Amino acid sequence: xxxxxxxxxxxxxxxxxxxxxxxxxxxxxxxxxxxxxxxxxxxxxxxxxxxxxxxxxxxxxxxxxxxxxxxxxxxxxxxxxxxxxxxxxxxxxxxxxxxxxxxxxxxxxxxxxxxxxxxxxxxxxxxxxxxxxxxxxxxxxxxxxxxxxxxxxxxxxxxxxxxxxxxxxxxxxxxxxxxxxxxxxxxxxxxxxxxxxxxxxxxxxxxxxxxxxxxxxxxxxxxxxxxxxxxxxxxxxxxxxxxxxxxxxxxxxxxxxxxxxxxxxxxxxxxxxxxxxxxxxxxxxxxxxxxxxxxxxxxxxxxxxxxxxxxxxxxxxxxxxxxxxxxxxxxxxxxxxxxxxxxxxxxxxxxxxxxxxxxxxxxxxxxxxxxxxxxxxxxxxxxxxxxxxxxxxxxxxxxxxxxxxxxxxxxxxxxxxxxxxxxxxxxxxxxxxxxxxxxxxx
Length: 442
Description:
Blueprint lengths: L16 H9 L8 H16 L2 H6 L5 H14 L4 H25 L3 H8 L2 H34 L3 H17 L5 H26 L3 H9 L8 H11 L2 H10 L13 H35 L6 H12 L1 H34 L5 H18 L3 H27 L2 H4 L6 H26 L4
Helix pairs in contact: 1-2, 4-11, 4-13, 4-17, 5-10, 5-11, 5-12, 5-13, 5-17, 6-15, 7-8, 7-15, 7-16, 7-17, 8-15, 8-16, 9-13, 9-15, 11-17, 11-19, 12-15, 12-17, 14-15, 15-16, 17-19
């Protein structure tokens, strides 16, 4: 994945998808039934390919999402739910293209950029990628530290150090095999999903306005800043780079011309991204039903946590803190992996992933030590990510439509059209935000 264990296959996987398919084609039956053998092989094959998109999806429900979704729901009710739907559609497209690039070329997006673009262009793309990685690290590290603080009462500075230790331990799991780390990350996603399903059950939202605002876009100058931040928190630039690397351990030589791996990865993307969309929507719905519905002003994640107790009970606040901690630890792990892929791909520079984790802890520790508002810092970091998105999306679009590079996997015209439209929407929302900020209307 990130040069910690080179495409190692876990020892508990006795057959690869190719081997399982071969067993079926040779007439090997399980329990004496060829159809059962085929069904078993199909399930094992699907399980084998599931993972990369779920790792990437963690970035779509990180502490930055908590910050933007809670503020969006508390201030504007259900009004911005449509932003999450649109963002998710773009996320599906972008993550699929990133995975397809890795499957076709056997290289990550940063490596392809270094090979295909000029040195000055590559350096500019690397700079934007590093800014997005630093903004991501800041949000995710702060979120995990907040989770420890809210759940166990650990002061923020010791909580930040504990976060760094926990992330390093999680990263070390990859030494056992890439799928071990993927399953741990998927377990964190499950914890977040269960916690917010519980929050939804307790908050008892009104479903009719929810359905309306998911479908009908509504935005104005006062909500554009949060809308762009929600977009930046959902379509994350650093995992565009990472996803192109996550598919490589499963890649085989014939994937250059065959389409099976790509189709299985599309299934992985659809399951993971739609799951992330439901969790993000649950965050907004909970905040809208509990805070906006009661006229409660929430100015920080701590305030949101403490306010849940009198409104929904102590179990709600505990579920909130557990979800935030799981989100922070898993997304901080994924962010470190993405930073490693960016550095190795653009600059061909290899350093220990643990050293990178130590270095990227510094900005978050400084923010905590200075005493800056974590919620405002998180929301600002997500707006920065939105501005960095085109620097990842435009090269990805350029590369995936090149026939000589992608072969049979090059984009169809409709795919190019949708990708151009998604990039145009992001650029348009960024321009609107700049106008609103400079004119004092945000």
